[in-house]
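Exercise 7. Given the encoded structure of a 330-residue chain, write a plausible sequence.
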């Protein structure tokens, strides 16, 4: 699915700021060795993960999202009441309903516009940016907060050593504004999304209100997910490059979903993206699902790697399967 037609109008969705938040509690591989039959060496060798953050009791997804959003607003230098669109990408909302986005909206003191959740699992932030871009370029809304926030630790079976070592909690947010297309070319240049529901059993949660009336636990066929993540998602990346009129050589930074270091490395190599252009935070955060890309973006902006005018690609694959990519002139 192509979701950006640059000839559609003269508006672009321009990044104003980015922010993130991680819970205070850190769970290291050494800690996990005491909880489940695994070793730090095994985890690092297969995933690259060294630690992850875990939300405290009573610390909800919307709480994480509010803190990340506040930092993004501060980074952008804008007030919360200037936001008229709030999209929260999450698979772990506070409640079945209302949407976590509405809780974030209220927590920020925003009383206008629209707020809603978007569920595409680990691809959620890419789907959220794509959706916000459509709203902003249509002229219906002016300024958006796109948040990826997760408490995946609440979905884990802590006796399943193949999954509990992979995931962590956190939130990241980005502020986008509709601006007239300028000579600097800044903004979201292209976005492409895909889904294929035939792959449900490879990565899913075995519960839900309409099926088991429970939350359930995350289940995954790791080898199948790896094969899809490396072998099938290149289409959206190539389509995004093509539509934006750029290629891997012109890219400044590749910021993929932080699921597994081996997947990240293999995907970059397959697309011809140089290793020094890849932003990795999986070693410190684990897989934070929809939060992973904005968390990584914030790290790379704060440490000075991503700068205004840089060409950035974000990319993710998630349960469903869902996958997507976007090219952004920062």
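Solution.
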């Amino acid at each position: 699915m192509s979701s950006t037609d640059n000839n559609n109008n003269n508006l672009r969705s321009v990044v104003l700021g980015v922010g993130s938040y991680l819970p205070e509690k850190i769970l290291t591989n050494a800690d996990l060795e005491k909880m489940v039959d695994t070793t730090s060496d095994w985890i690092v060798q297969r995933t690259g993960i060294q630690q992850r953050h875990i939300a405290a009791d009573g610390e909800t997804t919307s709480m994480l999202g509010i803190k990340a959003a506040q930092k993004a607003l501060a980074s952008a230098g804008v007030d919360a009441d200037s936001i008229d669109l709030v999209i929260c990408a999450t698979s772990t909302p506070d409640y079945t309903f209302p949407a976590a986005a509405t809780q974030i909206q209220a927590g920020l003191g925003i009383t206008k516009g629209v707020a809603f959740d978007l569920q595409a699992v680990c691809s959620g932030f890419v789907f959220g940016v794509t959706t916000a871009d459509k709203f902003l370029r249509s002229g219906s809304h002016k300024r958006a907060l796109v948040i990826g926030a997760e408490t995946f630790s609440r979905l884990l079976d802590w006796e399943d050593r193949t999954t509990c070592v992979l995931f962590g909690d956190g939130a990241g947010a980005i502020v986008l504004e509709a601006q007239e297309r300028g000579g600097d070319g800044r903004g979201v240049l292209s976005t492409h999304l895909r889904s294929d529901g035939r792959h449900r059993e490879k990565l899913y949660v075995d519960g839900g209100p309409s099926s088991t009336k429970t939350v359930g636990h995350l289940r995954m066929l790791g080898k199948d997910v790896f094969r899809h993540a490396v072998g099938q998602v290149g289409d959206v990346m190539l389509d995004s490059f093509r539509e934006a009129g750029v290629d891997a050589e012109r890219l400044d930074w590749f910021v993929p979903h932080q699921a597994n270091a081996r997947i990240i490395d293999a995907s970059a190599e397959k697309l011809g993206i140089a290793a020094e252009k890849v932003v990795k935070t999986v070693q410190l955060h684990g897989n934070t699902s929809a939060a992973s890309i904005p968390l990584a973006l914030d790290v790379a902006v704060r440490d000075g790697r991503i700068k205004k005018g840089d060409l950035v690609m974000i990319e993710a694959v998630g349960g469903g399967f869902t996958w997507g990519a976007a090219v952004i002139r920062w």
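Remark. Residues 1-8 have pLDDT under 50 and may be disordered. Students should compare their own answers with the one above.
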